[in-house]
Amino acid sequence: MTELLIYTPQTTQRVTYIFQLFFDSLIKTPYRITNDQALFKTYTGPKLNYSSTLFNSDELQIPPVGLLTETEIKTQPIEVTEWNNLKIFYRTDKGSLPFDIFSASFYLVSRYEEYSSHHADTHRRFRHENSLAFKNHFLDEPLVNLWAEELKKIILKKYPSTPFSGNTYSFVPTMDIDVAYAHLGRNIILIIGSYIKAIYKFHIRILFEKTLVLLRLKKDPYDTFNYQKSLFKKYNIRPVYFFLAGKRSHYDHNISPENNKFKKLVKKLSSFAEIGIHPSYQSDSNPEIVAKEIKNVEQNIPRKIIHSRQHFLRMQLPGTYRCLAELGITDDYTMAYAGVVGFRAGICTPFFFYDLQAESILPIKIHSTAVMDGTLNDYLKLTARDAIAVTKELLEKVKKCGGEFIVI
Predict the structure, then answer these.
(1) SS in 3 state form for 350-377?
(2) Domain boundaries, the chain
(3) Is residue 214 over pLDDT 80?
(4) Cα 318 to Cα 300: distance, rounded to the nearest angstrom
(5) CA-to-CA distance for 221 and 154, rounded, in angstroms?
(6) Beta carbons of 334 and 11 less than 8 angstroms apart
(7) Does position 1 have pLDDT exceeding 70, yes or no?
(8) Which of 36, 120, 290, 404 has its CA 20 to 30 A from that of 308?
(9) Long-range contacts at 329-332 (CB < 8 A, ≥ 24 apart)
(10) 269-321 per-position pLDDT tens digit
(11) How do 81-83 and 86-88 pair as beta strands?
(12) Which one-letter DSSP state was computed for residue 254?
């Protein structure tokens, strides 16, 4: 099969990583990297020159801006402009594209800006207001996917026989089980405490509801799992459930993972869904704590847990992903903002995480979440009708890219 030959003077880890993303995951074509000028000049198949040196006036060339040959993390001077109705940056004066598509994509997917930002929210999360995408109004666009399609068009125009295989759209609904039941699964001390709290706040309805549920005269209002199962079966969808399984704390209100209600629920959901871990707020990416929480869930199912999403979407780069990779987690779904919808890493295709501090690729695949119900309801204060409209708009964009549409 014909290979796309890519010339670059320096094959750094960053260069290798971004070429793998583009040509193995996004536009999928066989390729080979070379720094041999003579080989590149005489090659008769499709080829792309990723250097500042132009060998032939009509060749495909993308001049690099230098980001992919650096080894330090520093403030990047970025100016966002527009081309073909797409936002672009790292603009260049020459070349087949008006910008360094590989450096721009690396900046977004590596979350480069999050390493140099010192402005976090109260949960020590990177603020979406500080992101390049939010400031320049492209957070709702899977920009890296769209750029990749433009590169594909340019290659095909020059080399029409270049083989490309497309991506297939997929929909992945995910659920965070922060609190499995509203009233069931608590020990006697917590039950008494909840009664005292309800009496103190004069929550009469909650008092009646709690009593009826505990006496098994009414179904727990959080127990909608059979309804969920019926929907997934109807539409032939396999969801992912993330269980919070640490000790209770100020931000972790889950029922005990030692409770039989918890154990039975994990087993029940594992019959039709993937089961993942929801590392607690208090774990703070501590491998020892997260390992215990994984074990708390894993002991109830016959397979190893490889999926994860941080509670409160709380993560620190690269520490959180190093922790998860160390514990055998292969797929993480934390890449989203709590306050806004969209594509935090500018992409809707799963990608491996690049550790900028270690200049290495971690064996953990990142799945970008586009929409969270809490964002639509609690942060954006949308009506149900408007929330559905926003979700559909994002979904259609992902469909066109053959991406993975994930909702919480």
Answers:
(1) CEEEEECCCCEEEEEEECCCCECHHHHH
(2) 4-158
(3) yes
(4) 30
(5) 55
(6) no
(7) no
(8) 120
(9) 329/277, 329/305, 329/364, 330/306, 330/363, 330/364, 330/365, 331/276, 331/306, 331/307, 331/364, 331/365, 331/367, 332/307, 332/308, 332/364, 332/365, 332/366, 332/367
(10) 999 999 999 999 999 999 999 999 999 999 999 999 999 999 999 999 999 99
(11) antiparallel
(12) P
Q: Name the one residue in this structure whose structure tokens are 């999360």.
A: 125
pLDDT single digits (tens) 336-370: 999 999 999 999 999 999 999 999 999 999 999 99
Which of 395, 378, 278 is CA-nearest to residue 338? 378
Place of tokens 């026989």: 161
- Cα(259)–Cα(255) distance, rounded to whole angstroms? 7
The one-character DSSP state at 3 is P
Integer Cα distance of 399 and 392 in angstroms: 10
pLDDT for 36 equals 97
| Phi/psi of residue 95, nearest 5 degrees | 115, 170
pLDDT for res 87: 98
Q: CB neighbours (10 Å) of residue 221? A: 11
The 10 Å Cβ neighbour count of residue 324 is 27
**DSSP conformation class of 272:** T
**Contact 42/71 with Cβ under 8 angstroms?**
no
- pLDDT band at residue 57, thresholds of 50, 70 and 90? confident
- 111: phi > 0 → left, psi -120 to 50 → alpha, else beta; which? left
User: What's this model's pTM, rounded to 2 decimal places?
Assistant: 0.95
- Bridge partner list, 277: 243, 308
- Beta bridge partner(s), residue 5: 32, 47
Compute the residue count for the chain: 408
Q: How far apart are the first and last CA of the chain?
A: 41
* Cα 337 from Cα 375, distance rounded (Å): 8
Instruction: Encode pLDDT of 172-204 as tens digits.
Output: 999 999 999 999 999 888 888 888 888 888 888
**Tokens for 130?**
């500080």
Q: Which residues pair with 173 in a beta bridge?
A: 407
CB 404 within 8 Å of CB 371: no
Tell me the one-letter amino acid at 245. Answer: A
Contact (CB, 8 A) for 307 and 331: yes
Cα gap 223→181, rounded to integer Å:
6
